[in-house]
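cron nightly-structures :: item 1 of 1
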Amino acid sequence: MNNPEIEPGLQPAQTLRVQEVGVYRGPHLYSRTKMVRIQLDLGRVEQYPTNLLPGFVDALLKHVPGLREHGCSYGEPGGLVLRMEEGTWLGHVAEHVAIELQNMAGADVARGKTRSVTNMPGVYNVMFEYENEDVGLLAGRFALELVNLLLPIELQGLAGADMIAPSPLALFAMPEALRVLRAMHSEMAFGPTTASIVREAEARSIPWRRLDNSSLVQLGYGKHIKRIRASCSSLTSEIAAEIASDKELTNRLLIEAGLPAPLGTVVSSAEEAVEAARTVGLPVVIKPVDGNHGRGVNIGLSTQSEVEWGFEQARAHSSLVLVEQQFVGGDHRILVIGGKLVAAAKRVPAQVVGDGRATIAQLIDRKNEDPRRGNGHESALTRISIDECLIHYIARSGYTLASVPEWGKPVMLLPTANLSTGGTAIDCTEDIHPDNALIACRAARILGLDIAGIDFVAPDIRKSVLETGGGIIEVNAGPGFRMHLYPSQGKRRNVAAPVLDLLYPPGAPCRVPVLAVTGTNGKTTTTRMLAHILAANGQIVGMTSSNGVYIDGRRIMEGDCTGPRSARVVLGEPTIDVAVLETARGGLLREGLAFDACDIGCVTNVTADHLGLRGVHTVEDLAAVKSVVVEAVHENGWSILNADDSLVAAMREEAGCHICYFSTKAPTQWPDFLKDHVLHGGRALGCDLASGPFDMILYDQAKKMLICRADEIPATMNGMAAFNVENALAASAMAVCKNVPLPVIREALRSFGTSYEQSAGRLNMVEREGVRIIVDYAHNPGGLRALGGLVRKLRTGNSSCIGVVGIGGDRRDQDIFEMGEIAASLFDRLILKEDYDLRRRSAGEVAAILRQGALKAGFDASKIEVVLREHEAVERALGSALNDDLIVVTADDIARVWARVSAPPANELDPLPYKGAIPLQSEIRVF
């Protein structure tokens, strides 16, 4: 490729431009991995792959040296560098930079993809994995800013970056960008305890979702939901946690139970502390009554002044202070989960070892250079802070921060051994004496804690404290796992595993079955039929649909609830036995799925709808989006596929699970793959709509079983509504694969009709003063075509059929045109209307294209009226219909239309301004 001349003065709008940003939170079109997606227009930079940008690769590697390790398509370190030397485009480069920036900030991410956008030259979807989406988004912005900064000055220019994330930098600089990213990651990353439980949940395929920016995590779905906050769980008793936070009460209960615990007294003044110390015997330990992490705790206080100082230190953290006797021995943490000891570690207070040259302050700085040490609890070890407590403690040994300890001399820096104050831990799980283990386990049970950290002092943990002295000095609710996960010495312990064993014992379910329905048409009715069947089987169903979220048959949310946000509402509902989720393309393209895997996935059909939006330009593109649902079915689940739809049937190649087909053709007309499937014992449902009888037959393991006669299902209108026969087959297939007994399926289908209450907006019929009216969503050509089959069968004698027809403005012009053509073939009169939300079109634009389609199909122009407002179009139809006429309304505001056609009088409608009809001579678009 020749290097074209770079034109000077190139404007930013002609170079890099961010067009769209999304965050995939579940399985999606491109991957099962959570990813940030940035749609990037390279503009003129499309002409400059990396091999045509002198010095770019070297400069990039200088700023981000970790890119040398990226394997890219070569699968080994150096692969990305080779790709850049050969020539690759900047979207691909930005993907890798965003990944590496997150890793440099402390995250662990690796996956990414960059794909060109169909029909949009130079535009790419740049996608990369994230741990925290805010960190991922900011890393994406910084990646583009860095790439832009390294371009030749003539090509620099980045527009739309604020769409990704607000920049905290006035001017991009790599060191400052890294500092911001690291700080954000540190603030938002899970601590070691929560992270270990989440990783263990992932290993067990237990779904989880973070509920806040801290450590509150939901595990499981539906009635199997559990929650954790660090190591506090849904099973943690609030009373037990309160007892553990009261150290004096804890000691008293333990002593009453015959367990070794120190005697102590609660005081509220320095004078009382001195008197208490004399009573229990010096030296003493002074601590806050309700403190944690060793804050305000001091040991070995043996003089009046030390006791008074220790009281002031403790009172800074609590209004009440505990003065207790001091046990002699090493400080240990014993972790008890579910009444069983799972780990033990000896804790060593923060210390430094002299070298004869460095001061104590310098030795502390060296200690803090250990990469395992960080601030707070996110790292394996915590940095040692120099504070008043440390200065006072080393002074008791005759040191100051300026002291230079002799070579090999250990200097203890703090009285307590907490990891949060810089201590270290040595695993001793296998060394603990059985008596000590029993004492710790009894303590947890006496307080009622499901997860407890027992602070245990013993001269030798291998010997019983009943013989050597020592015992329990504290019991902690919600103990940290760091010392057991990352001990400084000894074996790492997977202490998250017993937590999950406690929450979900072996064999216990962690999720309710998830049944997902997608497709172009029929998914709402299929979803409702399936929920009806499952409810008849005695299950509490959570359902999302195009008109709301339902829990146990009651609507709790209104509106189009077919996206991931509504699905998460259902999956987070603790009362449900099963989730039935209508899953539309919009949410799939925007966020991906709300779940990691489903038990049963169904695709009803794929026809042209919403094409030209979000990179979906063909029905093949749309099929790829819909197939995400069946690709997410787990390995023991079922994919339900329409064998009559070639695009849907082809999904069998990607659906990694059991397959069940449904078909409305006679077995002799089945495609070969379906014949072979059934011949070899595969599962399928069929109903011959062409020649009858209308028996819905289940084929399974070489057996044929009658499910129901299609004409016995009210929703099929004696079998005339072929599309609802198809929907009944899909719903029945899902119910069969959910192991619902056939008699239950049969009786449930026989009670499923088309009433507004049972299936709002789907083939709702009413008769009014001799006029029959159908209200149906029929929101695309495929839906209207399917409805038309029934309309033709319902026509009687010389009566007229009036179509009140509209379509969403977000459809392509050719789809709107086709809708008009289909309407012309079905109706005697047309009243063309528009949705209330015009979807960025001007008023009258959609109706004009509908009219053009009808005219092109040969419809009489004198029988076309255009009334823009839907409620006014309905009024016009009602006012002009004669006895025995049939009115069909493809409704947008279904509730309002149904209220009007089913409950007169008209003057009860809320008046809206009437825009009038569009004149017949209005400008009409020509394709």
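cron nightly-structures :: done
DSSP finds 29 helices and 39 strands in the chain.
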